[in-house]
Design goal:
500 residues; alpha+beta; Glutamine Phosphoribosylpyrophosphate, subunit 1, domain 1; Rossmann fold; 2 domains; eight-stranded mixed sheet; globular
Length: 500
């Protein structure tokens, strides 16, 4: 008999979001181990390696053969899942975990994952990386049918769909639920007898399969396998479901065959540089991005300076290709408190200096090529440019190791509406003037594919999800279509009333 689950939800100090920090926000990270001693402790270690994918909240769910145990916390993994009693709090030989940044729903404890539900067939814990592009339509339908939602997260809709399925077996219930969702996702779920991993039909969000002492491991990135000493086995393929049980690992293909389109932004910014994503070293790709920048938009300069940390590999590639010396002209403070409250506008203006400090000995009197991974709204870039100039730089030439970001994302990246994206609203010359730089350059889409060693982009069937640069979305955006349709309907109605 399966007894009820135990859970522990805790709050920490509120997570502060700097309104002027326009870095792309990471989606989430998922991790799971099956049939392993001290499973919850291993999951906590794996989540440490995935902390960069979500820094607002974290959670772990374990199963001890009789009960599920869950803990969900606001804040960092290191603050929440520590202490010698961790395995006692979360006992069991199988566990899954999640690090979160809220892209769907909000920053509340009720939205923190893994989410858990007691279903007719037993308990299910679910961790989800990505976004469902038909979530609002699904939620509206489910609520109309009597479903009661406990959160505002799109992940909960998947649990409702599993619960309402008429299929007899839990795996078939999962497949039934997945057939009704759209978007980009990687899921890791734990049931009474199985661990299940699923990657969306296009492989937009990443998921890998590893092995620790002969036992299966699932993770968002290979760096999490390295953290626990696990061996990388392979990527979970696009549209694949892996079902892990005491009999081994079974591979299912529940979706119609399709062409893979993994998210190219994993290579630009999200993934850790020591990870291998879809067979490509993230570090090597980022260095090639820098090389291509130097080839296409080189400039006379004295020093190449990265915006740490994500700009470092590209800056190394740029320096090696151009022959201009690489220097750490900006030093990042890795110990900035995540709960720091900026009480006044005057203090907020100094916020960038909490994270980055100028190395005046490198910058003073120099013509500086500043390399960043991407430019979103431009507010952070402007602060950094001003800081470099105040440190005595004679010239500042800004280079982005990604193409201009012109379109928002709906697959798990917290990227602003189009009217807030700098490259969508200004020309190159206008952007350079806004950013107060002597010159500005971006990697081209062609250069990005070159850096990926992917050949020429096929407009009819692109090799990657690259809509942020091209506007070519890989799936239907149902919620957005409905919202725009309703807006148009309201506008038509208002127009009719005014004319009447």
């Amino acid at each position: 008999m399966i007894t009820p689950a135990s859970s522990r939800d805790t709050f920490s100090a509120p997570v502060f979001r700097d309104a002027d920090d326009d870095r792309p926000r990471l989606e989430c990270g998922v991790f799971g181990v099956y049939d392993t001693d001290e499973a919850s402790a291993i999951v906590a270690l794996g989540l440490h390696a995935l902390q960069h994918r979500g820094q607002e909240a974290c959670g772990v769910a374990s199963f001890d053969g009789q009960r599920f145990h869950t803990e969900r916390h606001m804040g960092h993994v290191g603050d929440a899942f520590t202490g010698p009693d961790l395995v006692q709090r979360l006992p069991g030989h199988s566990a899954i975990g999640h690090t979160r940044y809220s892209t769907a729903g909000g920053s509340f404890i009720r939205n923190v994952q893994p989410m858990f539900a007691d279903l007719e067939a037993g308990g299910v814990a679910l961790a989800h990386n990505g976004n469902l592009t038909n979530f609002l339509a699904l939620r509206e339908r489910l609520v109309a049918e009597g479903a009661i939602f406990q959160s505002t997260s799109d992940s909960e809709a998947i649990l409702h769909l599993i619960a309402r399925s008429r299929k007899a077996k839990v795996v078939d219930r999962f497949i039934d639920a997945l057939s009704q969702i759209e978007g980009g996702y990687a899921l890791v779920a734990l049931t009474n007898k199985k661990m299940i991993g699923v990657r969306d039909p296009l492989g937009i969000r990443p998921l890998v399969l590893g092995e620790l002492d002969g036992k299966p491991v699932l993770a968002s990135e290979t760096c999490a396998l390295d953290m626990i000493g696990a061996r990388f086995v392979r990527d979970v393929e696009h549209g694949e479901m892996v079902v892990i049980s005491e009999t081994g690992v079974e591979s299912l293909r529940p979706f119609p065959a399709s062409h893979a389109r993994p998210c190219v932004f994993e290579y630009v910014y999200f993934a850790r540089p020591d990870s291998v994503v879809n067979g490509r070293s993230v570090y090597d790709v980022r260095k090639r991005m820098g090389r291509r920048l130097a080839m296409d938009s080189g400039v006379e300069a004295d020093v190449v300076v990265p915006v740490p940390d994500s700009g470092v590999p590209a800056a190394l590639g740029y320096a090696q290709e151009s022959g201009v010396p690489f220097e750490m002209g900006i030093i990042r403070n890795h110990y900035v408190g995540r709960t720091f409250i900026q009480p006044t506008q005057g203090v907020r203006e100094l916020g960038v200096r909490m994270k980055h400090s100028p190395n005046r000995a490198v910058l003073a009197g120099k013509r500086v090529v500043l390399i960043d991974d991407s430019i979103v709204r431009g507010t952070t870039s402007l602060k950094i440019v001003r800081m470099v100039r105040e440190a005595g730089a004679k010239e500042v030439h800004l280079r982005s190791a990604s193409p201009p970001i012109k379109w928002p994302d709906f697959y798990g990246i917290d990227m602003p509406d189009r009217d807030k994206l700098l490259a969508a609203t200004k020309s190159l010359e206008e952007m350079a003037k806004f950013l107060e730089v002597d010159s500005l350059g971006f990697l081209s889409v062609e250069g990005l594919y070159w850096a990926m060693e992917a050949g020429v982009r096929d407009p009819a069937n692109p090799q990657f999800t690259d809509h942020y640069f091209t506007g070519d979305y890989p799936t239907r955006l149902l919620d957005r279509e409905i919202a725009e349709g309703r807006t148009e309907a309201v506008e038509r109605q208002l127009s009719f009333l005014v004319s009447a």
